Amino acid sequence: xxxxxxxxxxxxxxxxxxTLQIEMVPYYVHRGLETxxxxxxxxxxxxxxxxxxxxxxxxxxxxxxxxxxxxxxNLLGRVKGIxxxxxxxxxxxxxxxxxxAIDLLRERAPDLQVEVIDTLQVAMSQxxxxxxxxxxxxRGLTFDEVRRRASEVARQGxxxxxxxxxxxxxxGGRIGKAQHxxxxxxxxxxxxxxxxxxxxxxxxxxxxxKAYRRMVDLMQQRVxxxxxxxxxxxxxxxxxxxxxxxxxxxxxxxxxxxxxTELSPALAVHSGPGTVGVSxxxxx
Length: 284
Hints:
This protein has helices at residues 14-20, 44-52, 65-75, 94-108, 123-138, 143-156, 167-171, 208-223, 239-252, 265-271, and strands at 2-7, 23-25, 28-31, 34-37, 59-61, 81-86, 113-118, 158-162, 189-195, 198-205, 228-235, 254-262, 276-282.
């Protein structure tokens, strides 16, 4: 079997991680003098609650080569190859860190087939890549077939997100090409997405509901109304608002599979409480 490794920014629900035997490497959240491992020392729900009243924004850092090496070694001995999947290299040093870990791994296991793929995605658009790769691996597909499936899902995936404010993205230095939205009125809800691995602005709306409707329109432009999709809804302490977006999506598309999950703390730092997003790809 081919082993699948990714990091916690993928925001995959714990049950799926266990069922699909995906090896997870935690990001780090630095909160004052504390260094917390994302998903290990701090969970999404408790972190979202704390973040809502935080007076100072934490910082984050990607896993070091040694962290990825530890994940690889956890898989060693029970797999015949490993495919690692990182969040976009244009928003993190994870890809480079993972590549360095592979060089270290080859000193210990020179014959093991191992490769890292830069998904150019984040959140559950990265998560879907890992999920579908793991499913392909569990069906007994070859290394090349699993790699092709991962690359296909990464290429077809789309992430859309709206937040109550751009304050967290700006303070965390992750705003990318959406920088010009900072001058917008405070009651404007920004819409952001990913293009070529970088966060970009996709417009604004004057209410959450209008933002959700715009997100659904963008989804339709991507795949067509009524299309069959696999879709994940993500949030930061916003379960109830998320349900409104989910209802709108279900009205317009054939949802072959639906996942609801919370953004990992390492991502919640940059988007903030009240964030709601959708990650999907066409099911063909």
